[in-house]
Amino acid sequence: MGSEMINRRSTLKSLALGAVSILAIAVASTFPAQAENKELKIGFVGVTSGPAAAWGTSNVRSMQTRADWLNEAGGVKIGDDTYNITIVTFDDQKDPKRAIAGMEKMAQEGIHYVVGPNVDDGAAAVRPVAESKGIIYFPYAFPKSLYVAPASNAVLGMVANYQSGPAIYKYLKENKSVKKVAFIAANESDPISQRDGGVAAAKELGLEVVAETDTYQNDTRDFTPVLTPIVQLKPDLLVLSGVAPANAPLLIRAARELGYEGLISAETAQDATVLQEGAGELANGFISVGGASTPEIRTPLMEEFIDRYTKKFGEYNDESNTKVYALEYIIETLKANPKAIDDVAEFKKTIDSFSAPNPYAKDSMLKYVGTTSFGQKRQVSVPMVVTEFKDGTFKTLFIGEVD
Amino acid sequence: MEQVIANGLYLGAQYALIALGLTLIFALMNVLNFAHGQMYVLGGFVTYSIYGQLKLPFVVALICSGVSLAIVGALMEKFLFRPVIRRSKREESTMLLAAAIAFFLDALILLLFGEKQRGVPKIVSGVFISDSVILPYDRIVVGVIAILMIAAFMLYMQYSKPGRAMRALAQDRIAAQLMGVKVERYSMIGFALGAMLAGVVGGLLVSITGVNSGIGGPISIKAFLMVMIGGAGVVGGAIAGGFILGMMESVGLTVLREYGDVTYLVIFALLMAFLSIRPNGLMGKPWG
Question: What is the C-alpha to C-alpha distance for residues B165 and B169, in angstroms, rounded to an integer?
Fold first, then answer.
């Protein structure tokens, strides 16, 4: 009786093992390319929760959309090997301590290339970890100390406010007769440093700055009391320094409802749907730095990216027009120098001479810039698109370039 | 100055409404509901979905926000807080439970509604403009609705049978039980009512300030601030706390603007001084 049971169990076990083996062989033969591919992990450390979640979420979703797309196409060939891209994400909750923990996690996973963090203090906090663990990171943060030598592991992933601000103010001074400017910023390090940079740029252009110390708590829900005294100063331009996408429509709406008729601008990227829902036609005329691949200059590949992103996540975020670039720069630089795959010193060597066609914008090249601002190439080159919001969409005002 | 006072009164009305639900739950159950802000956010998203997405009337959306949050509140009381209160004598247990619910709701809301700021079309267009005051009509409507709701809530608590039962519970739980008040039933009604208030105010304000998944925590903190000023567990205290905070913000942001963002610094400093002199707030009782 006992041996009969054992025999039956053995037979069942053999049958199950056989079935699993056949299934495994069938799966392997169906996807031979993917099974042979190596894995290339790219990290993300940034904010994907809280009021600034839109910044990091657009990063993560851009990376995941592009990685899935590349993997679906058979992976990325770097040197003699083909890699499938895996995105490893960490939500730092906009907390520098968590950003450090996130970068440590990336190091433990053997990751050498990380996108993020999204804010100044997080980017500054992770610098020692990145430098000691051999990680190149692409922050969306503006402190020059991150990019000026001896710092060498950070590559700015977008256009900085001190690059876009002067261009915007100059345009508005020359084309819209702006003379008086007021600045308002959230009471946090990023927006305040952006405000200070903006104030300096405006003064340098000979504009009269009528408000330069006004701030608000980032969790403010009703901006009417904050804006009441500023609106009474009747500036020609109200600059929302470093404004989070969640707060921009509320500030615009409060200012307009208080009777403000001048121009409103921001040097941070915004979201058209959020502006339309939150401020509607009151947001018309709002000037901001748009995503780097506006309809006028985008390629069919960018159109497909937007389509894939929308299908995957249900709704597109205009910021992803810029956020899509970091992963592309990492992959293309690794393609240019395969030795950099686990050696960031090789990556740094390649930065100076790197150049590749820009898949997302017409008549444009992927290259590293930043020599004028940082004394070395530590910034990705993306088109600086300044947009004006009109009836739910961003219209391109002008396109510039950063050296 | 008239504009500053109008801003303060409007802010005060909405703050008072936010604080009411929190103080009611505290009064009835001695529970510091850290998830109050998340309930507000959930109510906001319900209104956003029904009014903003499905294009149904705003009133319908507001009722749905209230009803859905009342159900959520009742379920939370019955299946989470009641067993914890029964099994644990330590007050920290309910605080930890409330904090856990807050984190859970934060994550759930982010998952369901995404990370973006959401807004809905204005319920009333146009702006009232006089020589001294500019106030959009939708703010006036929301302010009036807030004041009417506060009045209705106070009348309900004063004259209805459940209201009297809940007040008895808040005054002395054991004595109320001995007098035949069904403690469990009215605790659940009270919790549902508190959650409903959070949901309705979230829905009401989504038409002015919009809503996003990350604002639950800051809303809770502000609500606690008002309750501390007015006195924990006292309905009148929450209303007073709301109006005082609204007025302090409005006046501070105008008078102190040239010194930078010191308004909240001053408010917190004043609050610390005030609580050291009057630890139970304006109307709070030493026994809770």
Answer: 6
Whether residue A308 is contained in a domain is answered as yes
Å from A89 to nearest chain B CA?
16
H helices present in A52-178, as ranges: 53-72, 96-108, 120-133, 161-176
Identify whether residues A43 and A154 lie together within a single domain: yes
Q: Are residues A128 and A217 in the same domain?
A: no
Residues A48 and A132 in one domain: yes
Contact indicator for A346, A337 with CB cutoff of 8 Å: yes
| pLDDT tens, residue by residue, B205-247 | 998 889 988 889 989 998 988 888 988 878 888 889 999 999 9
Which residue in chain B is spatially nearest to A226 when comparing CA positions? B253
User: B3 contacts in A (CB within 8 Å)?
Assistant: 228
Instruction: Determine how many CB atoms are found less than 10 A away from the CB of residue B57.
Output: 11
CATH number (domain holding residue A354): 3.40.50.2300
Q: Which SS3 state, helix, strand or coil, does residue A25 take?
A: helix
| Domain count of the fold of chain A | 2
Whether A396 is covered by a domain: the verdict is: no
In terms of domains, do A178 and A90 share one? Answer: no
Supply the ipTM of this predicted assembly: 0.82
Domain membership of residue A112 (yes or no) is yes
Q: Could you tell me where the beta strands, DSSP code E, fall in chain B?
A: 127-129, 134-136
In Å, how far is A326's CA from the nearest CA of chain B? 21
Kindly state whether residue A306 falls inside one of the protein's structural domains: yes
Residue in chain B nearest A244 by alpha carbon:
B117
Domain containing A42: what range?
Answer: 36-158+294-383
Does the beta carbon of B83 lie under 8 angstroms from any beta carbon of chain A? no
Over range B90-105, report the average pLDDT: 90
Which candidate in A48, A49, A118, A228 is best for mutational testing of the B interface (most B CBs within 10 A)? Answer: A228
The model's confidence at residue A32, banded by pLDDT at 50, 70 and 90, is very low
Q: Is A53's CB within 8 Å of B110's CB?
A: yes
CB of B118 less than 8 A from some CB of A? yes
Boundary-marking domain end, from A250, A268, A286: A268
CA dist A335 and B283 (Å) reads 70
